Structures are given as structure tokens and as C-alpha cells.
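One thing: mind reviewing this one?
=====
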Amino acid sequence: MRASVMTPASETSSPNRTYTERRAAAEAELKRLDAVSARYANLRALVFISGAAVALLVLFSRLPRTWWWAAGAALAVYGVLAVLHHQVFLREERQRLYVQLNERGLARLTRAWHDFAERGERFLTGSHLYATDLDVFGQGSVFQLMNETATRAGEERLAAWLSWPAQAEVVRARQGAARELVPRLDFRQDVCVEARTVAREKADPGLFIQWAESGPSLSTIRWARPVAVVLPLVTLALFVLGRFDVLPRPLWYIGLLAQLAVAVATRNPLRAMEERMSAGERGFVRYAPVFERVERERFEHPELRRVQSGLQREGEAPVSTRLKSFSRLYSFVEFKRHQFHPIVHLFTLWDIHSLFALERWRERHGAQVRGWFDALAELEALSCLAGLAYDRPGFTWPTLEEGGPKVKATGVGHPLLDEPVLNDVELPGPGCALLLTGSNMSGKTTLLRALGLNSVLALAGAPVCARSFTLTPLQVLTSMRVKDSLERGVSYFYAEVQRIKAVLDAAVAAKGHALFLLDEILLGTNTRERQIASREVLRLLLKTGACGGVTTHDLSLANLAEEHGGKVVNMHFRDHLENGKMVFDYKLRAGVVDTTNALRVLKMAGVPVEDPEQSPPSSESGLG
């Protein structure tokens, strides 16, 4: 069995150089924009002071009244400068986000990614078949490393892919799409920046989709829609005719009172719709640039084209155009926050017009909104797969085969380690297993986790830490980090039993298409019963047709290889002493280990234990 070390990205590697250069370019652009912003600030201050000075001079009769025009012009110029200055602020925010993204890219090349805040703990469940044991979510997890999504929907899609294996054709489609996205760093970062520009925290489209797919909100006051058009015109006509003494002047007050009555009658339905819509909006009115960036990209792979086609139906406007329309309509609703809104609403029935316009938008496009954000979420998840491949150029794309279960890995290592030692592992078919023995800390459990986590990545469509990796669609099953529970009154041994039962049930449900990985099972009982139970558990698992690996310190289990006709293979790790210190090479070797190190580990930790086999015989005395 061969073993080697996979080195991390070096300082001169392409990802490191690219992220460094892109960060430097963003910082230089940010510095330039800071200077532009300072000039705009000075200009705004100068125009404001000049306009205020002219206004005061006119007010105190130091200048003719015609100079009011100059003060008004100064105010207009100030407004234009404010708008232009705001655009500079937005461009500065984008450059800061580019700096952050490239700093995160550099962090992923070192252990600094362990400081990323989003670890995916909310996706962890104690009953999951492998997520806790394989560090899929949580601190130092593969999710923490890969996650570069900008929406909650994208984050949930990535988590779902890592939580459940996909079928072979789905995996191949994801691989092809992700491989095309690997070199498109500009596109991947642009989408992320546009999404994060509109929402500082990850936006959740769930409420927005719920509003879009809801039934009519204003059906009880449909009568108000034509009334809101006709009544203000009638009131205006009465006012004008009264001013010209065609009709009595006070008559227009009747129209105004009628509008007030309509406003009162429609207040509750309008407010209810506005509250539901505002709760769901959460910044999605500004998502048009995100979709517009996706629409501009030209893809080659069918999977990416399929995702992109979900954003535009033939003969219809692009999603970005429809969201711009929503944004424009929603801005009319937001006028309600203005101090003059009550007066404007009284004279024009403003809220009825604006909310009915949004209701029409919902009726026309609401059924498609879920598809838009599903497509964006899938693209975000695919970008995360591509990002892993970009940041880890030494990783490879696995090969999916039919049949199985089967796993064959050449040079496989743990994908979360900086310099993993690589080993060759093969489980050639149903009912095959590796029985791993070895001294403490020698690498047995790490190998199981490497095999399991790489299988999870492979079946999500991601690259893996190996020179080559071939497997069939299968369900990964683990029992490694079993915990007791005082709250539920469950002992460690019974927690282990429950976990093993879940693994067996899942293997049966998968009809043997499973990869089981068991680490030192049934430690909570005596040696004799543990040996018997371990043999039976392995027999039951192999009987389902599943394949996998089991670690053990119990060397008596080594004869399982003979009992199962060569389908169970003994492999081991070992250590050796150098200058009185234990040294591990983490290389997988054939056969059963012939060394132990538990007592040496205790002594290294400062526990003064003695080895009876090495102690001098004690003198015995007897009665004469």
C-alpha cells in the first residue's frame, strides 16, 4: 500500500497569487473611490454653503430677489451631487466586498478558514447517518470551508447536497457544471457581491415566495379599484367647476368626504397586504442586479443552461426586468413612510393604486418566483463546488459507476487536513470490508473519516482529496462519535446500540448500497461480549451487501478475514520509537498490527504506570 503527503497550496500557487492580486486591485480601486468621494463631499459642502449664503443675503435684502433663482439652482446642483455621491458609496461598498471575498479565498488556502462565522450548525441533527461523525457541519467542517453562498436558499441547497447522496446522473451533471464554473472566478464573485450588496445578512426568500404564491389579498375590496380611479377625478372636477362658479364651491367637499370614507373602508385589507408583503420583501426588490449578472453569462454545459433557462421563459421578459418592475411598484408603497403620505392618500387614494398594482404583479409573476430563487440557489451551490476545486487544485473529480456498492481510491487523504497522508483503499464489491488495527493515534479513524467524507463530497458532485476516486451511488453510514445523554437517561452503551441499530436499518433500507464506517464499536461492555457482538454486527452488515471499514484494538477479531472467505481484509497502522519518542507515518499496511502503545502514551502524558511484563519479578517468601 502506497502512502504520500498532499501539500497545501504554496505561496506561489495559482489560487494564492490570483486572490492576492484581486485583493490588491480591489484595495487600489477602493482607495481611488475614497478620493473621489472626498471630492464630492467637498463639492457638496461648497455648493451648500454658497446656496445658503445667497439665500441669507436675499433674505436680508443684501441681494435682489431674482437671486432666489441662484439659491434654487444651488439646491438642484446639491441634489445632483448627492445622487452621484451615493453611487460612489455603492461602488465603494462593492469593492469592500471584493476585498473580503478575496481575503476569504486566501483564508481557505490556510487554516484561517476555521474562523469563518457560518458553520452550518443549524443543519446538524443527532439522528443524521453521518454528518456529525464526518465533520460535514459545525466548527472545522467541510461546510464551513466550502460555503460561499449569499442567500439562505443557496446555503440550504449546499447543505442538502452534503446531507444526502445524489443519483449518478445528477452527480455527473453537477460535476460538469461545476467544472465549467471553476475558471469563472469573475462570475462567481460578481454574483456573490451583487447579492451581498443588497442585504448585509443572508436574505431568506421564503417569506417573499410565500407572499408571491399566496391567494388574492384584495379580493374583498375589488370594488375600490375603479372607485379609486373615478372618485378623485370627480372631486377634482367639482373643485375646478366650483372655482369657476359653474357649481357651488363647497360641493367638492362631498367628493373629498367620499374619498375619506373609501380610505377608511379599505384601510384594514390594505394594511394586511402591506404587512405580509413587507415581511417577505426583505431587500428582494433590489435583487434585479443579481439576476441580471446571471442572465449576462453565456454557459456551455447543459446543466448550467438548464438552471439559467429557469430565469427566463420564451417570449417573456427576463427575471431582472420583472424584479425591476416590482422594485418600482414597491417604491410607491414605501411612500407611506413619507410625512406627506396622509394628505396625498386622501386626495388621490394612493395606497389603493399602489397595492393593486403590486397585486397585479403577483398575479402575473407570483407562480414563477420560487423557480427564480431555486435556480439562483442551485447556481450558488454549484459555485461552492467549483470554489473547492479552484482552491484545491490537487483534488480530483471522482468517477461514478453503476452497480456496487464499490469504492476504489488511489492516494486518498482527509480533505480538511492541510497536509494529509495519502493511502490506497479498495472495497471491490458487495460484502467487502477492511478490518483496521493499529496503535493509538496511528491514523485508523482518520482513514475512515477520509473515506467517508470524500464519498460524501463525491456524491454531492464535488471534487475529492485523492489522485483517483471511483465509487457507485451509496449511502454513507457511520458510528464514531457516540454520546450518552443524561437528559434522555441514555447510557453510553445504549447510545452505541441505538446508533448501530440505525446503521443496520439504513443498510437494509438501502438494499446493501451502503458504505459503513464503524470506529471501535461497543466499547461500553466487557471484552467477551464485545467480541461476540462485534462479529455479529459485522456479519449482519455484510449480509445486506454493504461494504465498509471497522477499526478495533481487539486483535482476536483478525480471524474474521478467514471466516468471510477473503472479503474481509486485515490492514493496520503502526508507530515506532525514535530517540525515545513515538513516531507515526500514517501509512496503511497489510495484515494485523503487532505492536501496542497505550502504556507509552500514558507515560508521555505523565501518568506513572508500570508495564508488568517489563517489571522485575518480585521476591516471594514462604513458611519453612
